Amino acid sequence: MPYLSRAGFASPWAETGGFDFRCPGVTSISVDTHKYGFAPKGNSVILYRSKTMRQYQYFVQPDWSGGVYGSPSMAGSRPGALIAGCWASLMAMGESGYVDSCHSIVGTRVTIENALKEHPVLSTSLRVLGEPMVSVVAFESVDPVIDVYDVADGMSAKGWHLNALQDPPGIHIAVTTPMVKAVDVLIEDLVSVVEAEKDKAVQRVKEGGVAEKQRGQASALYGVAGKIPDKSVVGRLVVGFLDTLYKA
After folding, report:
1. Which portions of the chain are predicted below pLDDT 50?
2. Boundaries of domain holding 173
3. pLDDT for 176-190, tens place per residue?
4. Looking at the 3D structure of the chain, how many domains does it have?
5. Within a domain: residue 89?
6. Helix residue spans in the chain (DSSP H)
7. Digit-coded pLDDT (tens) for 79-94
């Protein structure tokens, strides 16, 4: 976001003076440097408007039997290797590197957004959600015969692991550097998947609707979860799934 204007894109915060501490209402900023900062995973930074606000995150135990204990947060230890890796990444990229990456990443998002709005197959079946401003574009299905979660499963089968959304059902694409060179293939695969879903719908009609529609993972999970009014049930399902990951 800080490099939108310098990369040649309109900044939605230009009239308000920015999204950062230039806005009086902004008191803290969270920066995930392991994402578009290209630092090793596990890095994150939080900035405060004043040192008074920063003090609220400290954990201090003055009467611990082991002595006076003070830590910047509830978590005590900090891995020095990650901190060094973050610093090295920031120095290696430099401001010019981040401007270039902003230009290519946001430009790729614009390419995907335009394809969704202008391609004869995509524009009649899918619709962009909201008004994308930076690196993410989301879309939903506007074709009654196409389940957007089936589109997500179709893209997964082609090696694209996109993120499913709910309320409303949709898919969002977070553009990253590897996607810049592969955007044309992404769009071609998306067109192919949408066309395939249309063909399946036509085939089901020809068969009198007796053929059972196969459900993929995204469609089964989000399609069912979205129809359950009691979200606590969905929460318990997620807990059960996590238990299977940690079962010895």
Report:
1. 211
2. 106-227
3. 999 999 999 999 999
4. 1
5. no
6. 51-54, 80-118, 148-157, 177-180, 183-206, 217-225, 231-246
7. 889 999 999 999 999 9
